[in-house]
Design the sequence.
């Protein structure tokens, strides 16, 4: 469907500077930890209230050294990029520290005098963080903390030319400057699963170098119990492998989305563990984005396949024969990697790439989007939302680099009965598209808080929260069902679109209607035909989400002359939303506990009042909403008004036609008369002495006057004759000669004037 931008209610907002480079470090359902410039914030998701903070600035000497190295003043600060929870309630924090990364360990300090005072932290350790934390605040780095060790994927030098995957315990890392292992990577995320730590990144594809330069998306993994090799290989991974991620549109010539941008945490979707990821085309290609999902089992299976290698720089990359693979199989976790032979360790070092790529769930993208103005940049998932029929759906939120958020779900088609293991057709259901940040501001990260019904959105310098769903903005049954949001259902008792909560599923949902896997027409048929009373909120936009809206008038509209219904049809509803910085919408009825502090955005929030509600008789509200194209200005026009408008249009059209006919007839008559009175000059009209010229309409100027008339005694004015003219022409061969010589006739004053003129 052609989704229009929906302006949503901003629950709360924090505005900083674009150079703060906000980054989500950790979160739960109530709080979020945000790393920024020289500080780490502990913020409550409910209202974005600051609970606590830890300040850590670079020293003056480090800032001065950073400036001497040619960096900007805004970069010479300590940007917090890494956070981990240690035993005994201690925490580890790492920052860029003016391009000289450092890490600190903090322990909580309990105030025995004031036990209710906010917890403070004291520094217990301060060490260098080369290989743990990036040098630049904008570098694409990631990390994971598992089993007491920090696994980081970043760079280990000031210039960013030494990428690595590093673990602080045993100081294990990938091979330095080995393009087979890492070739200018951009890391986007890391997860821990099944005894492995997996890293998602994009890099220049070495296997394609003989044909050109391109970027592929990868997933790499290492064993958590890897302890390195023996002797010179003691600081090297013995289990690092990588495989390509395949997010493409299937066909004889598949279309690939090759550049991964973001991933979600592992989502437990029934019996499957999924990772959702954002992919895009290259920056110099047609702007395209896609959302693909990958099953953890498929990733593990790809690492059990054949290896890929290149014999020499001029050869192609081919699969390695099974008889050339040493035992135990390289890349598998062993109790002690230091017992591995040098042959096995060197095989992993020289053959890190797998032959098979990791297929996406259903063998195709869950969402494809081509837009000239924006690309997808971030993703968040509200996992396993229960629908009215008991099915569970992952609700996906995809952010763009233009401040928008697209919300959608995916449903296997009823005919295929697809599962996550089948390459079958699925139905992508668009729910809404929201403008939550100003145009041009990219969405960097998002966090879903299901308990507080809040989506937290983070950009470089802004943090906002918006509702997860918009059930309260739907005013009729058909629109509520066509929304196809598993959070929303139509309550037949109160005639309202409500959000489904756990209590609804627990105590019964017989009075609710919901339609997720149907067309708009089928959803409309589920609504009761009886006349109901509804409420139109007039202070905020009435939203139409979901499937495309059919703007054609339904021929089955009841046209009986009911005075109340006629009055309802004649109403004109105008919805004006406040546009002050960030566009806003009204409150969601499912989140009455959301607090709006004025210190963080309450001055521009819209609050709906009872006086802004318009009560009307329902005349199949879906037909009323079908005439709405603009969510900020909707008009309901009755059948009587349409007939009057059609009559006026007919009379105006008839008058215009008659006026046009009169104008054409006048033009034809005028042209005919002008042709009769103004004959075009003949081919001989240029002759000076043309007798048959029309003296009335002819153009008279000096050179057209016959100056030889009455210039001698042979010419009598009263007796014009062709013979006399011939005689005169015989005597005077041309006018110039006759005027230059003396004529034997009387010369009058007029003749002298004529001579002088000639």
Sequence:
């Amino acid at each position: 469907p052609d989704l229009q931008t929906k302006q949503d209610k901003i629950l709360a907002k924090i505005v900083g500077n674009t150079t703060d480079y906000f980054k989500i470090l950790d979160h739960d359902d109530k709080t979020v930890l945000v790393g920024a410039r020289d500080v780490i914030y502990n913020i409550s998701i409910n209202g974005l209230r600051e609970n606590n903070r830890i300040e850590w600035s670079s020293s003056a000497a480090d800032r001065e050294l950073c400036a001497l190295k040619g960096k900007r003043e805004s970069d010479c600060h300590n940007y917090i990029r890494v956070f981990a929870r240690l035993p005994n309630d201690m925490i580890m924090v790492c920052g860029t520290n003016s391009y000289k990364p450092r890490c600190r360990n903090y322990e909580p300090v309990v105030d025995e005098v004031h036990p209710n005072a906010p917890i403070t932290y004291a520094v217990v350790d301060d060490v260098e963080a080369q290989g743990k934390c990036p040098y630049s605040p904008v570098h694409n780095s990631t990390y994971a903390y598992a089993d007491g060790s920090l696994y980081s994927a970043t760079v280990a030098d000031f210039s960013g030319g030494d990428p690595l995957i590093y673990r602080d315990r045993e100081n294990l890392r990938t091979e330095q400057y080995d393009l087979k292992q890492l070739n200018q990577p951009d890391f986007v995320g890391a997860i821990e699963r099944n005894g492995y730590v997996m890293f998602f990144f994009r890099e220049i594809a070495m296997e394609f170098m003989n044909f050109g330069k391109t970027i592929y998306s990868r997933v790499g993994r290492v064993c958590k119990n890897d302890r390195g090799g023996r002797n010179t290989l003691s600081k090297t991974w013995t289990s690092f492998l990588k495989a390509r991620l395949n997010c493409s549109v299937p066909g004889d010539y598949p279309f690939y989305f090759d550049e991964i941008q973001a991933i979600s945490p592992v989502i437990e979707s029934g019996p499957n563990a999924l990772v959702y990821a954002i992919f895009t085309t290259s920056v110099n290609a047609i702007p395209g984005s896609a959302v693909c999902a990958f099953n953890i089992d498929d990733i593990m299976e790809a690492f059990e396949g054949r290896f890929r290698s290149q014999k020499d720089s001029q050869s192609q990359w081919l699969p390695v024969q099974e008889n050339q693979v040493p035992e135990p199989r390289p890349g598998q976790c062993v109790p002690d990697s230091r017992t591995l032979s040098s042959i096995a360790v060197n095989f992993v070092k020289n053959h890190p790439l797998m032959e098979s790529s990791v297929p996406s769930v259903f063998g195709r993208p869950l969402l494809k989007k081509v837009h000239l103005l924006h690309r997808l940049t971030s993703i968040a998932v509200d996992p396993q939302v229960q629908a009215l029929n008991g099915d569970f759906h992952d609700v996906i939120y995809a952010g763009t680099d233009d401040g928008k958020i697209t919300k959608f779900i995916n449903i296997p088609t009823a005919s295929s009965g697809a599962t996550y293991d089948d390459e079958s057709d699925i139905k992508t259901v668009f729910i809404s598209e929201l403008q939550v940040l100003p145009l041009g501001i990219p969405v960097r990260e998002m966090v879903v808080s299901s308990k507080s019904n809040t989506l937290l959105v983070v950009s470089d310098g802004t943090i906002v929260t918006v509702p997860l769903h918009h059930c309260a903005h739907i005013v009729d049954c058909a629109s509520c069902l066509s929304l196809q949001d598993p959070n929303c259902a139509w309550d037949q008792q109160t005639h309202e679109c409500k959000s489904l909560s756990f209590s609804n599923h627990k105590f019964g949902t017989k009075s609710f209607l919901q339609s997720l896997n149907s067309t708009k027409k089928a959803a409309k048929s589920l609504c009761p035909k009886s006349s109901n009373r509804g409420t139109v909120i007039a202070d905020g936009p009435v939203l139409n989400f979901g499937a495309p809206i059919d703007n054609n008038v339904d021929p089955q509209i009841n046209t009986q002359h009911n005075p109340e219904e006629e009055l309802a049809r004649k109403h004109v509803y105008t919805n004006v939303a406040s546009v002050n910085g960030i566009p806003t919408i009204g409150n969601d009825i499912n989140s009455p506990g959301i607090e709006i502090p004025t210190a963080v955005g309450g001055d521009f929030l819209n609050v709906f009042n009872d006086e802004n509600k318009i009560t009307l008789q329902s005349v199949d509200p879906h037909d009323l909403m079908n005439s709405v194209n603009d969510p900020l200005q909707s008009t309901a026009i009755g059948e009587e008004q349409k007939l009057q408008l059609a009559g006026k249009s007919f009379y105006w059209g008839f008058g215009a036609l008659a006026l046009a006919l009169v104008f054409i007839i006048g033009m034809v008559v005028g042209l005919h008369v002008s042709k009769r009175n103004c004959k075009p000059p003949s081919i001989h009209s240029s002759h000076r002495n043309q007798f048959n010229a029309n003296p009335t309409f002819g153009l008279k100027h000096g050179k057209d006057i016959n100056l030889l008339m009455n210039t001698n005694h042979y010419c009598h004015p009263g007796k014009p004759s062709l013979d006399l003219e011939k005689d005169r022409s015989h005597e005077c061969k041309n006018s110039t000669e006759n005027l230059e010589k003396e004529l034997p006739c009387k010369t009058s004053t007029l003749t002298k004037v004529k001579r002088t003129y000639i």
